[in-house]
Design a protein that fits this description.
With 393 residues, the chain is of the alpha/beta class. It folds into two domains: 12-209 and 323-391, NAD(P)-binding Rossmann-like Domain (Rossmann fold), CATH 3.40.50; 213-319, Dihydrodipicolinate Reductase, domain 2 (2-Layer Sandwich). It contains 14 helices and eleven strands. The protein has helices at 22-36, 38-41, 72-79, 84-87, 91-95, 109-126, 152-158, 166-175, 191-199, 213-226, 243-247, 251-269, 322-342, 368-391, and strands at 12-17, 60-66, 99-101, 131-136, 180-182, 203-206, 230-240, 282-288, 297-305, 311-319, 347-348. It has a seven-stranded parallel β-sheet with strand order 3-2-1-4-5-6-11, with helices on both faces. Strand 9 (297-305) and strand 10 form a beta hairpin. The longest helix has 24 residues, at 368-391. It binds nicotinamide-adenine-dinucleotide (NAD). Residues 17-18, 20-24, 65-68, 102, 137-140, 165, 183-185, 208-209, 211, 242-244, 247, 322-323, 325-326 line the site of nicotinamide-adenine-dinucleotide.
Length: 393
Amino acid sequence: MRDSDSSNNRQLLLLIAGAKGTVGSTVAVAVAAMKRNPQFILPSLSTGRLFSYLGEPQAISFGGWDASGKNLCASIKAHAVLPEHLWKPYEAEIDGMPIFEAPGPDSDLKRQVERLIQDFQRFKSKLPDAHLVFVNLLPANVQLDLSGCSDLPQLYAQVDSKVLPDLAYTLAAVLSGVPVVNFTPNIVEIQPILEEAIKHGVPVAGRDGKTGQTYLKMVLASALKARNLTIDGWYSLNILGNADGENLMNPARAEGKLSHKTDLLDNLLGYQVGQRYGASSHKVHIDYYPPRGDAKEAWDTIDFQGMFGLPMSIRLNLLGRDSILAAPLIIDLARWNTVLKMAGRVGPVPELAFFFKKTVGDNPPLTFQDQIAGLQKLVRECDEKILAIQSKF
Ligand SMILES: NC(=O)c1ccc[n+]([C@@H]2O[C@H](COP(=O)([O-])OP(=O)(O)OC[C@H]3O[C@@H](n4cnc5c(N)ncnc54)[C@H](O)[C@@H]3O)[C@@H](O)[C@H]2O)c1
């Protein structure tokens, strides 16, 4: 069946690398809960009322890969994002979700890609009519400079898949014609992969989900910019006690995320915060603090100036929940990528900047207002294209 065919009862099959992780396993519970009681989850989605040609939003299934040997419910219990009464009722469905073993870390990138392409085939044969979407939720990793890799043979020769397993999954998805969402700070959107995405008709959305503190930073900075208030300094501190927080204590692994969090502000404002001090006065710190688990806390101190250069200040204290903020965005992005593929959109999608800290693609919208307007325009474009295609059948 072609993507443009009338598809109102096709399932969406969400395939996640890192499916048993803190975010992935929360998405699994949301998918199970949504099937049984759609109204419990649908109000948390921003796409719940969009894309009627996709069919019921609850027609969604979950699968993927993980390196952990624990079963999915044991992982949900260990992450302690959700109290037991919120996931126990779906235990049987959750443990029936197909999670494949991660490819052995000792095989090279090419062999891993081949193995994962077979896995995509296995998933397709389980649900032959489904729209497949791949979401990368692997741990934050070191930033590799792969700008010198211009084609696949070079990529296969240069990359040690142990260092960046994300590439094997992303490439296998692209070569299988499956749209990609990169929610991690890891760089997978490199030239040879984007070229293959264009060749295989695959949209690529990324990078680094914008969930809590950075989302509010973008909203507030946009509001201050709209009033011509000059930001003189911005100090952001995060404490979190989940596996992502622990992983980010490794400076090489945190580098990408920290630079995405900092670059965003200067890009949005159009000037460097702290220019007059000769160095950036936008500081971002992340600290692993086990007592908090997934219930992350963030503090922001924002110093800004008004008329006559007189100083003012804002304090922001977010008591968030990392995976609860992230999980609905994963489902929204899976729905977006399905629609984009049906509309014939390929390669990077900068209009999805609303969802990401470091949007891939040219000239992404930067302020909150422009990101919302960009999404609304994209909805209209996709609706028009898909309805026009469907009217021909
Ligand atoms: N939670 C948020 O708000 C948020 C926001 C932006 C970005 N992110 C990013 O999302 C990603 C996932 O976050 P998380 O909190 O779920 O992390 P996590 O560490 O809890 O989960 C990662 C999962 O990946 C699995 N894994 C490791 N190597 C693997 C491999 N080679 N193949 C398959 N599975 C493998 C692990 O076993 C684990 O289950 C991270 O990169 C994080 O930085 C999260």
